Amino acid sequence: MAAFATTTELSMPAYPSPVFRIAIIGGGPAGLMAAEVLGAAGVQVDLYDAMPSVGRKFLLAGKGGMNITHSEPREAFTARYGSRAAQVSHWLDGFDGPAVRAWIAGLGIDTFVGSSGRVFPTDMKAAPLLRAWLHRLRESGVRLHMRHRWLPGEGKLDPAALRFATPEGEVLAQADCVILALGGGSWKRLGSDGAWVAPLRAQGVEVAELAPSNCGFDVDWSAHFRERYAGAPLLTVAVAIDDAAGAHFKRGQFVVTAGGVEGSLIYALSAPIRERIARDGSATIWLDLAPDWTAEKVAAEVARPRGARSLASHLQSRLGIKGVQAGLLRECLSKDDYQDPALLAAAIKRLPVKLLRARPIDEAISSAGGITFAALDAHQMLVAAPGVFAAGEMIDWEAPTGGYLLTACFASGRAAAQGVLAWLAQRAL
Q1: Which of 14, 51, 204, 247 is the most buried (most CB within 10 A)?
Q2: Which residues are CB-neighbours of 204 under 8 A, at least 6 positions away?
């Protein structure tokens, strides 16, 4: 495939198997992408995964429609990675959203851009893409070893002395280089359990604490509100939160749960919300329940005479405020404030909701934290462990949903593989 061939057109020789052996530990998107680049370069690649089959998280991510990347312009796309935008941008220089689409096309899968700008396979499914990808990997000589759980051990991280737990007992393996692509800590049942954190720290690798990302948050709702509105969606709403970087303001949808809030709009703001909670013990988000109305228009409508109508009926007829929106006003305002037209109008445009804590990491879509960039060299090799590289969610970055997570995982896997080839080229001199 011409569009993807550039990933292996490197300014270094290709090495015929089995001169160099590369072990990739982890069968997610980052590990599989690294395997593709290395297999195409002619080295022997062995991919080990603790699960019975590779790509399980990839398949689960595609259950609701395989959102593979996003069509956003590069500058806006890169900004989605927040404080790690500069580092992730380096990965994207080699494999960005358009490159992802070209790569998928080379696997025989057509894509389309949805109304939100997200990119999907035309059949919206992950399984056909994964099957085509695995076929390509096997054709390039990549060997897959399932039900192999890495045992880091207590000694130095040594590619030549790898240990794996298997159903048949412990297995030893040797490699010239290792790429770690074990994921973060948010999908324990699919193998991403963060069990690698302690062993790497013991070897002197700096690892930022794993934390939930793209997650829900707890709110101390009253029993009445919880029982009446748990599960109710807010379909047209905007959320703002202030942090050290300035005001964040996004429009979208989220859901009220029995214990708090969750959904795409909340997930998109999970990083600044989480940071505010860590700093202050809680975070206040500000809801705009009427984002299509100006504050002046809302104030005028609330102040209109309502005659014999109840205030709830008045808000519904004049502003469309009803159901969970009306419930939130009563939940978050005092009785006196609710009856004050000026304060009520202000609250409709800026209603404070106090978030207490993030939901547990195993409920999150992804995780933040991981191996710090300071612990990696320019080729993603661990400074404390020569010959050991890292890719994907093991590294300390995060992104909102919308194709940004997958794209950066692909790109980081590709970059790690190129780092391996560069390191091998130096050794061969």
Answers
A1: 51
A2: 384
- Rounded to a whole number of angstroms, the distance between the first and last alpha carbons of the chain is 30
Do residues 36 and 136 make contact, with C-beta atoms less than 8 angstroms apart?
yes
pLDDT, tens only, 289-313: 999 999 999 999 999 998 888 999 9
Q: What is the 3-state secondary structure (H, E, C) of 18-39?
A: CCCEEEEECCCHHHHHHHHHHH
| Whole-angstrom distance, CA of residue 161 vs CA of residue 401 | 37
Task: Please tell me the distance from the alpha carbon of residue 307 to that of residue 387, in angstroms, as a whole number.
Answer: 77
Cα dihedral angle (47, 52, 55, 56), rounded to 10 degrees? -150
Fold assignment, 2-212+367-428: FAD/NAD(P)-binding domain (3.50.50)
HEC readout, 86-117: HHHHHHHCCCCHHHHHHHHHHCCCCEEECCCC
Decide if pLDDT at 242 tops 90. no
What's the pTM value of the predicted model, to 2 decimals?
0.89
Model confidence at 57, in pLDDT bands (50, 70, 90)? confident
Report d(CA 255, CA 265) in Å as an integer. Answer: 9
Q: Please, where in the chain does CATH 3.50.50.60 lie?
A: 2-212+367-428
Read off the pLDDT of each residue in 106-117 and give the average, rounded to a whole number: 94
Backbone angles phi, psi at 51, to 5 degrees: -85, 165
One-letter identity of residue 254: F
Would you state the structure tokens that stand for residue 87, as one six-digit string?
Answer: 């580092």
Respond yes or no on whether the N-terminal peptide bond of residue 18 is cis (omega within 30° of 0). Answer: yes
Residue 14: its pLDDT value, please?
47
